[in-house]
Amino acid sequence: MAVITRGFGGRRRDDADLPPGQYRTDDFPVLSAGPTPRIGLDKWELAVVTETGERSTWSWAEFTALPADEPTVDIHCVTHWSKFGTNWRGVSVDTLLADVETAAEYVVAHSYGGYTTNIPLEDLLDGQAWVAYEFDGEPLVPVHGGPARLLVPHLYFWKSAKWLRALELRLDDEPGFWETAGYHNYGDPWREQRYLAD
Amino acid sequence: MARAAIPGRLTWQPATVAATRAETATARTLVLAVDGWTGHVPGQHVDIRLTASDGYTTHRSYSISSAPGPDRLEVTVQVVTDGEVSPYLVGVAEPGDQFEIRGPLGGWFVRRPADPRPALLIGGGSGVAPLMSMVRAATNPTRLLYSARSPSDALFSADLATAEAAGDGRVAVTRVYTRAAPPGWSGPPRRLDADALAGVAWPREADAVAFVCGPTGFVETVADLLIDLGHDPMNIRTERFGPTGG
């Protein structure tokens, strides 16, 4: 039985696309655990590493020469805000993995700065995830994860690792930074998987 | 990075407003009574769920500003223009009113009592709220640098003075005013800059941990300045909020 809060009316919006417990914002809030790493494009590299240690790498020039998509997606942060219709440009994870041989079922995304997050591989495939480097037609700014970040819009946004450095393919599931700090291992906003055991 | 899991399922619990305290013209502290609340780690937050009489609900996260303790906690809320929840919490809620909370939450932006390292806490605006909990619970050397627009915008003025006096020298508070300084203040209002930070930063060999909380621009600036001062990025923990920060 819910507790009714006296004096609270609320502002209803007819947002059928809003997952449970979320509210809609038109800002683009920022949430990160530490300082924003500054990565020069001349030093930047993206790697895909398989469970056998095979490494594929892209320099910035190589990465941005790959075929890119321009997805428009809704994003949902565990801190309860959702932002609708965000516009990105990025390389599909399908493209990055096209020539990679793997039996892996899990991925750990590694960021410049040390952040990690874990995602089942199948959640990154079939047009569900990108490594994004533009937002609203502009280069992705560092505070939002530039030069490039993972974009996995169907999971809570902490899974969309900023400042992406590597995708590590694994046979076993290895919980990442927030996943070992009390947050849910999978993070589906539609099932409201915010915290451990939700 | 050291981390700790939060065990168990977090359920919604009724919270009753036990008292309110105005902090400024646009911010106040709510004292919440929660049966069976077992305390928190300074820096943690709670999710608050408000339910209207027709069943409509909405949620927000708020930092806990009180020292850890059983059966009650305090959150300090700054009104967000056009906000949905903060105007209710700051302007409407009265003692006896009820809503639900879930927590305590967050295992990273926390200062554990067992951590022996000195701490540098840097707060901008209402970002001082979780740092206030750390100051109140400080058992190890703690420096707080608090940036507010003006004395009338500053939260916890009396509580900070009390904590400083009661801290046996453990707690030191430095204030920066960005728009209007109080009478007799040395120098003009200014943004928090490298000089101000260098004046309070611990020496590198102290292996201090820094907690930075405030609006995104503030946190970005401060974290970059700390790195410029030689602070290890791995020992800088940030929380960003305010009107543009979740």
UniProtKB/TrEMBL annotation, chain A:
Chain residue ranges for the region called Disordered: 1-21
Pfam families attached to this UniProt entry: Oxidored_molyb
Domain Oxidoreductase molybdopterin-binding: 34-178
InterPro entries: OxRdtase_Mopterin-bd_dom, OxRdtase_Mopterin-bd_sf
Top-rank taxon: Bacteria
Protein name (record): DMSO/TMAO reductase YedYZ molybdopterin-dependent catalytic subunit
Taxonomic lineage: Bacteria, Bacillati, Actinomycetota, Actinomycetes, Micromonosporales
